[in-house]
Amino acid sequence: MSDQAVAVSGRTMRLREATRAAHERLDNAIMAYDPFSNRQAYIGFLVMQFHLHQAAEPYFRNPELAALLPDLVQRSRLERVRLDLADLGETAPCDVPVSLPESDATEDVARGLGWLYVVEGSNLGAAFLLKAAAKLGLSEAFGARHLAGDPKGRGLHWRQFTAALDAVDLNECEESIMFAGARDAFFFAGRLAEGIFSARS
Question: Residue 2, exposed/middle/buried by CB under 10 A (0-12, 13-18, 19+)?
Answer without folding.
Answer: middle
